[in-house]
Design a protein that fits this description.
Elements lengths: L2 H11 L3 H9 L7 H22 L8 H12 L7 H23 L5 H26 L5 H25 L10 H9 L8 H26 L2 H22 L14
Length: 256
Amino acid sequence: MTEPAQVSAATEARPRPRDVFRSVFVDERDGPLPALLFALTVLAGAVDAISILRLGHVFVATMTGNLVFIGLGAAGAKGFAVGTCAIAVGGFVIGVLLGRRACEAASRHRGRALRNVLGVKLSLAGVILVIVILSTPRYPVGARDALVALLAMSMGAQLAAIRYLKVPDLLTVVLTMTIAGALTEHGTGLSDPKVLRRGLTLIAFAVGALSSALLVLNVGLGAALGFGLAIIVAVAIAAHLVSRTEAAWTAPRTPA
């Protein structure tokens, strides 16, 4: 083969940037699930920003931080709300159990599993909305603790769905391994969908945290919670639509 022909063949084999970018959000293995999980990654960043800024300096999505706070409080360190952290952990555990049951009821269909979990999250969001309406603008301690528990339950259910769906590099809540993967497994650079997905996952979480923080600090807690609710509603509608298909990607997967 002549040199120009070799260059032409290499050019044809190289994926187009548009195709690479599209495969980050929709691919053969997982269908449209990655796109929906990107939205839920934004949500995870948003709710942690809310809980840290306005609900007692506690995490509702990232439980590792709460366990550290509980340990520090138990050791006698000042300034750590052990009770609030324990409420968050307890709510998260309950949410995981609810999410697991919702996934088990999906008849081995990943689209339906996500739809069922979004149904759980919408139900919890409805209760949160009632609490916000009744307790605005003061948000007494009891209301704040209830919001912590409910938000943690919602994120626990979400993580149960993530464990069931097994979409690579889209854990939505636990991003430590995503960061490690982005730094150690470079692939072929931005032309590798895995590399691009990891980077965009981190950006999505940061965007959620930034957006929610701006709403909390400049508008109010209700506005930030409304932002999170809008994400849940949008993803729930999309999950309902994809739950109708019987495409190959809907089948349960082994870890990638």
